[in-house]
Specification:
With about 160 residues, this protein is an alpha+beta fold. The chain has three helices and nine strands. The chain has helices spanning about 50-65, 85-90, 125-135, and strands at about 10-15, 20-30, 35-40, 45-50, 70, 80, 95, 110, 160. Strands 5-1-2-3-4-9 form a six-stranded antiparallel beta sheet, with helices on one face. The relative contact order is 0.18.
């Protein structure tokens, strides 16, 4: 990778299955192609994709393989962007999906903003909630290309230093 500076450096918690948290640094490169690099001690995960959402989902899937999840708004089961919001924000923002009818617009959140460990879920839980909310059939739940082999991290945009 080149030596381009990230557009933003964030500190986010990673939580394990027992609820213990560890600090991580997340570097966000939002220029095309988008790139996200998560570092926690010697553990480094990097994802590159056409937008920040692809990168975030890729990082989260790879953390889940190791029993971890990232404590950010984009890991909440009830948060996901519409196609239009995703396009206009380069995958940076999403909506809090209401559990029932709403009279006004949906709340918009930064997917990389911190979230409490109790609020987050798995990528699959999030996908199920989003597809139910948007009324899409289950058979349309094809996985993104970054999923080539989440157990090993192999695929077109992966680099591990684990």
């Amino acid at each position: 990778m080149d030596a381009v500076s990230p557009g933003e450096l964030l500190e986010l918690d990673i939580v394990d299955e027992a609820g213990r948290t560890t600090k991580s640094t997340v570097a966000i490169y939002d220029a095309a192609p988008a790139r996200v690099v998560l570092t926690s001690g010697d553990f480094v995960l990097e994802e590159e994709g056409f937008d920040l959402l692809v990168c975030l989902v890729g990082i989260r899937r790879r953390l889940e393989v190791h029993g971890f999840n990232l404590c950010c708004q984009g890991a909440r089961p009830n948060v996901w962007p519409s196609g239009l919001l995703r396009q206009f924000s380069n995958g940076r923002f999403g909506y809090v999906l209401a559990s029932g009818p709403t009279d006004g617009p949906l709340e918009e959140v930064d997917l990389f903003a911190p979230a409490d460990a109790e609020e987050i879920g798995t990528v699959e839980q999030q996908r199920e909630t989003a597809f139910r909310f948007w009324g899409l059939p289950r058979q349309r739940l094809a996985r993104p290309h970054v999923d080539a082999n989440p157990a090993t991290g192999s695929g077109p945009h992966h680099r591990d230093s684990e």
